[in-house]
Amino acid sequence: MIIPLALPKGTEKVCELCQKRAYLQCARCRVTYYCDAEHQHSDWIGIHKRICQLLIPIRTPSLFSMQRAGRIENLLKTKELIEICRLVAESKLSEGKHEEAVPAAQACLRCSVDVYGPNTVQLVPAYLLLADANMGMGNLALVAELMSQAEWAVLKSPECGYAVHHRLHRSMGCLHTATGHFEAALFHFANDVRIYFASEEYGLDSTVTCGGYFLMADVFVKQGEPAIVHSLYKEVKCQPTLMLLPESSNIVHFPDNKGQQVEVGKILRSILEFEQDETRKEPAQVALVAHSLAMLSYLGGDVTRVSHLPRSAEVNIRLTR
């Protein structure tokens, strides 16, 4: 637990979260400041407890830090901070903890600016993390501003890779879906998945690419196009099953990334709910999706979920033994 500490009079510092004038100091690292106890607590929960001590050598001026070897060491430490903040933000986003993801995303962006400078393409992942966090909180105006900054950085760097373009188009698609601009959303999702970027970077059968099909289907759900939704879900349905097969089948192992498991689970449950409500549902489709969800729950240690799945899943599981 961090103990608030009043700053000496005349000390001008800014809050880690909102950049307003700070009046409190982290009592552990003494290099991080806040405008009030609420922001201090939010930052501690969001990211600061993970990086508190790591900030001390980076933010404490010394004769060594001014020398070339010291600058290089601080640069490497700051890059390490970027990676830690990115992973924490992604983990919290996958768990639906959007408010807690904001401090980690902000720290990731701030450190990226320190390393790479402003308006560079290396800032795009941090912009998108911050945009995703605010999307979940409903701050769409701020999301649009962040997306504009990310898009501008990509436009200035035509040499940036497929992964950056994929993430940008997918986030733009999510923003347009949230604001009701469905045709624009489909344009960005199509660029992401069908035309180029996600499939080129990760392959047609990857979880990332299939996630794009799922997002496209979500737009058609909102447009009342169940036949198209059903068709797109067929592009998704095989992926979770493939991920769960052993390596002897020439398929990749199930990933260790907990966040990815959570994301796959969300996709499967949405597909299963749609297919069960669909009047023209295919029993085999329902069984396959339910089977994949059962295996996902089992490998995740949540055996109670398996017992609540449809009877068709139990039949399919017995047939595959």
UniProtKB/TrEMBL annotation:
Q: Which residues form the MYND-type domain?
A: 15-52
Superkingdom per UniProt: Eukaryota
Task: Please state what the protein is called.
Answer: Zinc finger, MYND-type containing 12
Record's keyword annotation contains Metal-binding: yes
InterPro entries per UniProt: TPR-like_helical_dom_sf (IPR011990), Zinc_finger_MYND_domain (IPR053248), Znf_MYND (IPR002893)
Quote the Pfam families the UniProt record gives.
zf-MYND
Q: Which GO terms describe its molecular function?
A: zinc ion binding
Q: Which UniProt keywords apply?
A: Metal-binding, Zinc, Zinc-finger
Top-down, what is the taxonomic lineage of the species of origin? Eukaryota, Metazoa, Chordata, Craniata, Vertebrata
Q: Which Gene3D superfamilies match?
A: 6.10.140.2220, Tetratricopeptide repeat domain
